[in-house]
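Entry for flavin mononucleotide complex. Fields follow.
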Amino acid sequence: MNITLLSGNPKQDGLCQSVIDAAIRGAKAGGVSVSEIRLCDSRLIRCQVCDDGWGTCRDQNICSFGSDGFTQIQTSLKQADVLIFATPVYWGETSEALKSFLDRLRRCEFGSQGALSGKQALLIASAGGSGNGIITCLHQLEQFCRHTDMAIFDRFGINRWNHDYQAPAIESAARALAEGRVCGETIQLEN
Ligand SMILES: Cc1cc2nc3c(=O)[nH]c(=O)nc-3n(C[C@H](O)[C@H](O)[C@H](O)COP(=O)(O)O)c2cc1C
């Protein structure tokens, strides 16, 4: 199995990275090493909104400007079995790096014909001071998954007063995915 984590986090440490590391640890415990793609380390352009609104994204599933590094990342994501999306919450949304990348990717991979269709996704939003904006950020990630026909396995909202119990839950979720658990499977209750 191949699990790829797409990160919108600009930092190498702190709260958001701690839960990214928890997800990677969990997958590893389940026998899968995770490829982490840090979008803030690249300098990708935004969608150029070609022609009247669509470009080669619509018919060829590629971005005409993909040589900026976009196509390489798109290829990695297409090859993954499971995707983990992780971002700090900025203005109640994903970080700008993740947002502008997903804008381009959605155009290339929309609908049930896209290469992301049916893949499982784990969504992680890490908020700061107020903790506000987690829901809207997760909603934004959900919308991306709906547009690309991905299967959302779980969603996590982290802040500075819940990470002690959320980080282990993320670790467990990533482990369960690595071990092959799928959306819709019924786990027997332990009474
Ligand atoms: C531009 C910007 C906007 C932010 N907007 C929010 C927000 O809407 N809600 C919130 O709770 N935190 C917000 N934060 C705080 C980040 O979510 C927080 O720094 C990060 O998720 C977790 O902390 P970390 O830096 O230790 O990883 C914002 C931070 C920045 C830089």
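NOTE: The two ends are 32 Å apart (CA to CA).
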